[in-house]
Design brief:
With 194 residues, the chain is of the alpha+beta class. Helices cover 34% and strands 26% of the residues. The protein is built from six helices and eight strands. Strands 1, 2, 3, 4, 5, 6, 7 and 8 form an eight-stranded mixed β-sheet that branches.
Length: 194
């Protein structure tokens, strides 16, 4: 069976949000038997969701929550037909890129003990001395990953148009000074063609 190309995006609307909820319900509630009230804990509304889509449908998701000087990657879910692919890696890498643009350099997570090696392959390390969590019959190990400082990270001194832009659309914002340069380049090109 040939799978459609996978697109990795930040959730932008209610359709994206609903697709994420459907994937998590299928993976965590239906497959793993996690009680619905624990899976859907109210934290989704203040979080960012990284989605994997194929054919316009959400096939994977990860939630990002924000704390003072770190972010927490959690609730990674990928539908069964895509689990042996690189979808989870793509979601994770999009998350790293996204939070790096926001200036974060530390990513926290917890993983099932039996999947620790997989997370270590993604650059995570066990947090020394952190207590292991017993949750829904799983042993969860606290892990973290350091990210390099992003020299283009958004700060309080960034242009207001960047800080009011739609999430993850910062690279498409054309700032006033860039508009002038673009206009000058077009004028120069037009003159050179005469």
């Amino acid at each position: 069976m040939k799978q459609e190309p996978v697109e990795i995006v930040v959730a932008q609307n209610q359709t994206d949000f609903d697709g994420m909820m459907k994937v998590r319900r299928q993976v965590f509630v239906d497959e793993q038997g996690i009680p619905e009230n624990q899976e859907f804990d109210g934290n989704d509304f203040g979080a960012t969701h990284i989605l994997a889509k194929a054919g316009g449908n959400v096939i994977g998701a990860m939630r990002i929550r924000y704390f003072s000087d770190f972010v927490k990657f959690e609730r990674m879910a990928v539908l069964k037909p895509y689990r042996k692919s690189d979808v989870s890696d793509k979601i994770m890498n999009k998350g790293f890129d996204f939070v790096s643009k926001k200036g974060y350099q530390k990513v926290y997570g917890v993983c099932k003990k039996e999947l620790l090696h997989r997370w270590q392959e993604c650059g995570y390390a066990v947090i020394p001395g952190a207590p292991v969590l017993q949750h829904n019959g799983m042993q969860l190990i606290p892990i973290m990953r350091d990210l390099p400082k992003n020299p283009k990270a958004l700060t309080i001194h960034s242009h207001p148009e960047l800080l009011t832009a739609k999430e993850d659309c910062w690279d498409s914002v054309i700032l006033p000074q860039d508009k002038i340069l673009l206009m000058a380049a077009k004028i120069k090109e037009k003159i050179s063609k005469q």
